Amino acid sequence: MSTPASLVQHDRAAAALARVRETAEGVFEALREVRDAAVACVLPAGGTRRPVVADLAALRPLLWARLRGGALPAHLPALIAGIGFIAAPGLLADAPWYLEWWQENPSGDPVQLLRNMDPASSAFYDYTHWDWYAGPFSGAERTICGPYVDYLCTDEYSLTLSVPVPAGGSFAGVAAADVFVRRFEAAVLPALREIPGPAFLVNAEGRVVASNTASWVAGSVYRGGPRDGDHAVRRVGDLPLSLVTTTAGRAG
Amino acid sequence: MNMARLAVFSPVDSTGRVDAVVRRLADAIAVGLLADGEQLPSEAELAGRLGVSTVTLREALMALRQQGMVETRRGRGGGSFVRLPAQLDPLARLRAFAADELRDFGDHYAAIAGTAARLAAERSLPSDVAPLWRTLDEMDAVAAAPETAGSGEACARLRRLDGRFHIEVAAASQSARLTQEEIRLQADIGPLLWLPHEGLSGHDETAAQHRAIAGAVERGDGEQARAVAERHVLDATRHLIELRLRLRE
After folding, report:
1. Predicted ipTM?
2. Strand, helix or coil at A200?
3. Would you call A156 and B157 a contact, using CB atoms and an 8 Å cutoff?
4. Domain A20-180 has CATH 3.50.50.100
5. Is residue B155 assigned to a domain?
6. A149 → closest Cβ in B51, B164, B174
7. Which residues does chain A have within 8 Å of residue B49's beta carbon, measured at their own beta carbons?
């Protein structure tokens, strides 16, 4: 039976879902552009020769523009802190491991990250194990990795969103973007705050991404389960995110 | 005007910034986040990224060159390159610490590693635990490989993987600050903590403790994870202090 309070909650949850979806889709839209541009880069001369590192330089104007928030709807804050193309190992003729990766720089032009990535010289560089690579590699159309502590690039608590880059019938790598959790939270919190009672957003594994309550702060784990009868879980479109709200007697 | 208050609001002096830049890069090099031989971005780019002036950056690079952690080549294909200071005599470094300083390092490290492990156990998901087991399996494989066992190369690789394991545990805590502190402590004392086990003699014991930490994190047993992680650091510190006390001046 619907009470007015639960109707209010339902409407506001729907608005929050729309806000979260719009925020994430804005980033995925930028990634689809990067993917399309990367496909052209990794099939040089109509795919008649193997691509090299220099072929990826053509991506730069697009990456720089998206770092500044380019394609995102104007009412959304600029979210993307780092963006680029990560080559599948062995794709490029002149570098077995390579990222064409650019990061924002508060004091000037975007900067490129770590150009030479060779797992033989460091224990950290085999990127194929990270979810942002493994997800698209195993066929996921849209991957949201994290929140996690990004100790390789930024030292920030981050999300990495990624999509596969298929080229010439095979997997060429991934297009990915880093979004700091604090910025994602700032983008969706106004909508979460409108929901009466505790409400929080979790990733596919149950890690809290953003929340309107200190009881479920970003980074904590929602394990759900049958005993959580007073929680309603709504999927955010077909994204790997869900909104959890409290259904019983805590409105207001 | 009170002089102490004036000092508070005066610009952070450039030595402080140089030290901060030296420390940041030296930590990353010591732990292996920047790899041996890797080219650093141009001075202008690096200065921009770190938010310091080019002059400050140059001073920092000079200090790192003096410490043998960065090499600068001129001309075509030139630039600044990371150098792993493998040739530094660890016993000479150890001699620079008194036993009570080592004990203090151990106390600090145990606090960080213990809390990180407890939070990791409380908050970790399967995707946080998988990298831990992968790293430990890689370590076992390096230690067991008959062709390289005991070689300097195998030890260096084990040390890097050991560092990666502890950073992965810290990252599983979901705390960026604890992870940064773990990296800093490893840079400060990691190569020394490894010393008593040089030659792989202690690998089994260390590996058993690593597996106990990963197991407790996987089970979600926060208190056990904290206890084992603290024990791991304190045992290594005790070995190190024994070693230090036997060193003649």
Report:
1. 0.85
2. strand
3. no
4. no
5. yes
6. B174
7. 103, 105, 111
